[in-house]
C-alpha cells in the first residue's frame, strides 16, 4: 500500500513538473513599458472607438444615450458660438445636458482636439 502511494505521488509530481507549463522557464521576450513609452500616443489614437465631441456632427452625437436631434443641434450651436469644449463636463453649459447624462457617456465620448480630421 505504501509503495502504491509513493508511486502515485511521484506520478503527480512528475506531471506537475513536466506536463504542466513550468512557470520557471523563460518562454520568450517580454515587453516592459514605462510612462514615457506612451507619452507620444495621443488621446485620439487610444480612443478611436469613442466620439470626439469637438468633431462630431449631429448624426454622430445622436449615437450617445439621451441625445436626439434637438440636443445634438444645441451642442453644435454651443460649439459654434463658444469654440471647442475643454472637458466633457463643459457640456453642462448646453441646454438640456445634465451631469448624469455626461457621466453615462463614460467610454463612449471624449473631448479631443478640434483640428483632427479623424474620429
UniProtKB/TrEMBL annotation:
A cellular-component GO term for this protein: type II protein secretion system complex
Protein name: ComEA protein
Family annotation (InterPro entries): Competence_ComEA_HhH (IPR004509), Endo/Exo/Phosphatase_dom_1 (IPR051675), RuvA_2-like (IPR010994)
Source species of the chain: Subdoligranulum variabile DSM 15176
Record NCBIfam families: competence protein ComEA helix-hairpin-helix repeat region
Highest taxon in the source lineage: Bacteria
A Pfam family: HHH_3
GO terms (BP aspect): protein secretion by the type II secretion system
